Amino acid sequence: TNLVGTSNADFPSGDPGMYQLDITLRRGQNLAARDRGGTSDPYVKFKLGGKEVFRSKTIHKNLNPVWEEKACILIDNPREPLYIKVFDYDFGFQDDFIGSAFLDLTSLELNRQTDVTLSLKDPHYPDHDLGSILLSVLLAPKEEQREVTMLMRKSWKRSSKVTFSMNYDVSPNGPSGTASLWHRIYSPSNCVLMTVCCVSSNQSHETFQTQSLRLSDLHRKSQLWRGIVSVTLIEGRELKAMDANGLSDPYVKFRLGHQKYKSKMVPKTLNPQWREQFDFHLYEERGGIIDITVWDKDAGKKDDFIGRCQVDLSTLSKEQTHKLEMPLEDGEGCLVLLVTLTASAAVTISDLSVNSLEDQKEREEILKRYSPMTMFHNMKDVGFLQVKVIRAEALMAADVTGKVSFSKSDPFCVVELNNDRLLTHTVYKNLNPEWNKIFTFNIKDIHSVLEVTVYDEDRDRSADFLGKVAIPLLSIQNGEQKAYVLKNKQLTGPTKGVIYLEIDVIFNAVKASIRTLMPKEQKYIEEENRLSKQLLLRNFIRMKRCVMVLINAAYYISSCFDWDSPPRSLAAFLLFLFVVWNFELYMIPLALLLLLAWNYFLIVSGKDNRQHDTVVEDMLEDEEEEDDRDDKDSEKKGFMNRLYAIQEVCVSVQNILDEVASFGERIKNTFNWTVPFLSWLAIVALSVFTVILYFIPLRYIVLVWGINKFTKKLRSPYAIDNNELLDFLSRVPSDVQVVQYHELKQDPSHSPSKRKKNNPS
User: Fold this and answer.
1) d(CA 285, CA 227)
2) How many CB atoms lie within 10 A of CB 654?
3) According to the model, what pLDDT value does residue 279 have?
4) Ranges for the C2 domain (predicted)?
5) pLDDT of residue 755
6) H/E segment holding residue 484
7) Which domains does the chain have, with CATH numbers?
8) CA gap 473, 445 in Å, rounded
């Protein structure tokens, strides 16, 4: 327990957000060591009412860290203590607890800055000296509410990390009369929204006063991150063997702040080749530290730790690719990386009054940047996207429990393009909110999809979903203000409300075409999908429909061979003879080109006979209904029906897997001499085919085969159609059949002669 003296300050139990607490996290002294090297990597969390409201940066390998970080926290109830917890950061493992303390806010004198030293304690070991934390605090009544904007860098609903962004707000009423940078913090793990003000501690009040004019210019348009860090994971060398076979199944985890990536797993190797690329947002001018850990994948149990390393971005020059060979700590081997720091992408938030495309000079600069003359400059910068989020109408009302009611909503809007996530301020108590915000993005892939989601803000709960739209960039009509009907989470059906957007896309077609042939940008790691009967059934039906296309095509060709329709078979026969006799390789892409041209002609002429695909849509709607039923009626009847449906799908998948596995095993067993007679027969057949292909051109062989297939029914109308190769393989036993047909040796103790000798009677 840490108290800060006493105070005569009277704290009325007034409205929420009545006080403003300015905290400067100075430093730590003699903190407890939690790492094997006798040091720690400490960071500090502030919690208020059980909710995390601030988290400091991590100071690596230091027991006397200096933070000098400032934060401004809005206080609802000053009678609730502020908890301070200090942790040792361990990437890849659970962070170690160093110690905690709390600050009694009622002991502070209003409008007076106080220096506080808090001794850290562990409730389980109250006698241990764990060090101390030095703070400067100032508690003052809060005067006004400021509009803020926020950036999401992780998945909105499922991430457990704090995400934030900046919007500049200059006011003479800021702390100590200085200009301040206001942040809005969202923590999905504890579902709390707070407003935080951060002021750089290494600048004086005078410096802030001179900068306030510049910041006021940026109040309506703010850039959210300072650069992009591109990391290419090339390979690993001589990694540590973690499995009993002397090998490993390695994969790599990356972390920069709260941004995380995970590479693919490469099985059974100590020298894996990944060739994967990941992009991080860089928020600090001086760089940051990328934590890298290597793991061995173990099915059914905890993965094994192979080693770790760190990349200090502050030591790397910008606009240059660096090849790094990073030896692994606490392990063996090294990783080979390519790291590139580039200038910030133009991702901004602004008011409608600041429109880049309406400013003629800025528009010309943007058009010049993506003109054909710059097609080979900065291939990752494909285009420019501007999204005007104007307003929404007739949104669904939601109360604090999240259930539909007649109350109002507190809507805000999230705009996402790949890993770039921005959002508007919240409009409270309104079903027809007006945001009037402009978001700009750099386009890395013209095939990306813009996602706009509307949520209802709940103070002490996760945000409630109100609706969503997904808009492919290539389908956007520039400069058109359009009302989009909001959809459900699966984007399969409408929900209540519409949102008005105006979107402009400018891109370089050559860059976009080249980027189309490169790997897609990987999204941040998200939670795995849960098992769903409807999802399993839907995917099975999708696969079945794709296979049925091939089967129907095979039936159609077979009907030509069977002369079910003589005119069609005759036309197919003549076409076959013409194509085979005159065949050249260029005819393959030419045929595909003609198919594309024919379908385009049908669409342009209005004769497009494509039917709206309702099967998958119905499946998606059933999946949405199943999610609702699982949430509401999980204890009700119908379990056996769902079990039978799952069983039906699983049996079908089981049979398909058996057929595929058996086909491969039969080919293997042919060459393994499992049945010598069939292997000798294969030798004879292959020898004959080798001689024929050596002396006779392939064109004539295909002609003979085709003529035989087309005339077989004419020569023998009642002949049974067959495929000689499949018929041959059907005689070769699979591995399961080999075991079934294997003769067991008789146990001598159970032979009849033994029984007679042992039992004379």
Assistant:
1) 8
2) 11
3) 79
4) 1-118, 209-326, 360-486
5) 52
6) strand 480-487
7) 19-141 (2.60.40.150), 227-342 (2.60.40.150), 360-516 (2.60.40.150), 551-606+644-741 (no CATH)
8) 9
| Exposed/middle/buried for residue 446 (C-beta within 10 Å: 0-12, 13-18, 19+) | buried
Average pLDDT over residues 292-315: 89
Distance of CA 466 to the CA centre of its chain: 22
- Interior CA angle at 420 toward 154 and 95, to 5°? 25
Long-range CB contacts (< 8 A, 24+ apart) of 593-600? none
Q: Tell me the three state secondary structure of residue 633.
A: coil
Q: Which amino acid is at 527?
A: E
pLDDT digits (tens, 9 = 90+) for 541-556: 878 888 888 888 888 8
CA distances from 225 to 291, 424, 484 (A): 20, 17, 29
Please give the full DSSP string across 123-182, using - where no structure is assigned: TTBTT----EEEEEEEEEE--------EEE-S-TTT--S-EEEEEEE--TTSGGG--EEE
Report whether pLDDT(478) > 60.
yes
Please count the other Cβ atoms lying within 10 Å of the Cβ belonging to residue 634.
8
- Residues whose CB is less than 8 angstroms from the CB of residue 408 and which lie 6 or more positions away in sequence, other chains included: 397, 428, 429, 430, 431
- In sequence order, what DSSP letters do the residues of 278-308 get, joined into one string? EEEEE--TT--EEEEEEEE--TTSPPEEEEE
pLDDT at 497: 92
How far, in Å, CA of 334 to CA of 271, rounded?
10
CB 424 within 8 A of CB 435: yes
In this predicted structure, which of 19-33, 352-366, 440-454 has the lowest mean pLDDT? Answer: 352-366
The residue among 308 and 715 whose pLDDT is bigger is: 308
Return d(Cα 224, Cα 347) in angstroms, integer.
Answer: 6
Share of the chain above pLDDT 90, in %: 16
Q: What percent of the chain has pLDDT over 70?
A: 72
Q: Are the CB atoms for 134 and 156 separated by under 8 Å?
A: no
Averaged pLDDT, 66-70: 87
pLDDT tens-digit map of 561-582: 888 888 989 999 998 898 888 8
**Tokens standing for residue 130:** 């764990």
Structure tokens at 94: 């659970």
pTM given for the model: 0.53
- Using a 10 angstrom Cβ sphere, with 0-12 exposed, 13-18 middle and 19 or more buried, the burial of residue 58 is buried
pLDDT of res. 608: 64
Q: What are phi and psi of 81, to 5 degrees?
A: -70, 155
Q: What is the pLDDT of residue 485?
A: 93
CA atoms within 13 A on the CB side of 323: 2
Q: Give, in order, the Cα–Cα distances in Å from 608 to each of 293, 418, 553, 600, 604.
A: 53, 32, 21, 9, 8
What confidence score (pLDDT) does residue 452 get? 93
Q: Which residues pair with 236 in a beta bridge?
A: 335
Section 423-446 average pLDDT: 87
Burial class of residue 397, CB neighbours in 10 A (0-12, 13-18, 19+):
middle
Half-sphere exposure of 181 (CA within 13 A, CB side): 20
Contact present, 390 and 498 (Cβ < 8 Å) = no
Contact 509/502 with Cβ under 8 angstroms?
Answer: no
Report, as an integer, the average pLDDT of 724-731. 85
